Amino acid sequence: MPLSWPRPRATSRSSRHFPHLVRPASVCSCPTVSLGSVRSLIHCNRTRSEHIHRVHKHRFASAGAPRNMNIFRLTGDLSHLAAIIILLLKIWKTRSCAGISGKSQVLFALVFTTRYLDLLTSFISLYNTTMKIIYIGCAYATVYLIYIKFKATYDGNHDTFRVEFLVVPVGGLAFLVNHDFSPLEILWTFSIYLESVAILPQLFMISKTGEAETITTHYLFFLGLYRALYLINWIWRFYFEGFFDMIAIVAGVVQTILYCDFFYLYVTKVLKGKKLSLPA
Question: Going by C-beta distance under 8 Å and a sequence separation of 6 or more, which residues neighbour residue 267?
């Protein structure tokens, strides 16, 4: 039965004493709305809200204490941390940032800043908070060493990748494809997309110079291993939890593909004691 607003019936008493309650039928009538369409709209909105809530719940739960993680995610976090430490030690011990792309490091600092803004709004666990602070602190420390502390050793002539060709499209995509059109969610999505391509300036620099130091290749290997382990983590979670985040999965696949050529060269050259070089 269609839903429609009831029209007040004009009686002699109401029209005489309460003339403002009596309106023409053309004013009082409203377009009829199907009860089925109302229910469908409510169900659609409820389903979308539940999906967004489920995505956020699983994302926060998996980023909590180690006991809430599977081994692949935990190992991925440790691999990521190892890559950052290797890079910082390389720069500090050699007192040089030669062969390191400052543009890639700026992009990674932007990734961590936009991803971990929830530090200001929510507390997940001590492990979660500690790791986020370490990632952000190390990212900006690396940028400081490259552009200020050891600026004289920075090879800006070869670090020429146009990062605006990454940031602008990624920013537009984050606005168009996200889980929820809210500031924090858009920035989180932006960080996921940007991380998948943030290593391109570094690979481009190696390609341009023709080779990379062994310690730099170790840094890139652990960084790529971190992303590969996260892909296995998504497969694990889908199989055992029935949950997946399509945005994170697609971005992770793209990032892993970018490392495939490097992984091959790392195994065939670096592990055999040779210097790594990428084809120009």
Answer: none
Q: In this structure, are residues 223 and 48 in contact, taking their beta carbons and an 8 Å threshold?
A: no
- Mean pLDDT, all residues of the chain: 81
- Run of H or E including 263: helix 246-268
Cβ burial, residue 43 (10 Å; 0-12/13-18/19+): exposed
Tens of pLDDT, residues 48-60: 555 454 455 445 5
Predicted TM-score of the model (pTM): 0.76
Dist. CA 107–CA 103, nearest whole Å = 6
Q: Position 139: which residue type?
A: A
- The Cα 217–Cα 191 span in angstroms is 24
Going by pLDDT thresholds of 50, 70 and 90, the confidence category of residue 254 is: very high
Cα–Cα distance, 246 to 134 (Å, whole number): 27
- State the DSSP H helix or E strand holding residue 259, giving kind and residue range, or none if neither: helix 246-268
Per domain, the residue ranges of the chain are 68-271
Q: Which tens digit of pLDDT belongs to each residue from 170-197?
A: 999 999 999 999 999 999 999 999 999 9
The span from the CA of 118 to the CA of 135, in Å, is 14
Measured between alpha carbons, how far is 239 from 55 in angstroms, rounded to an integer? 16
Please, are residues 73 and 230 in contact by the beta-carbon 8 Å criterion? Answer: yes
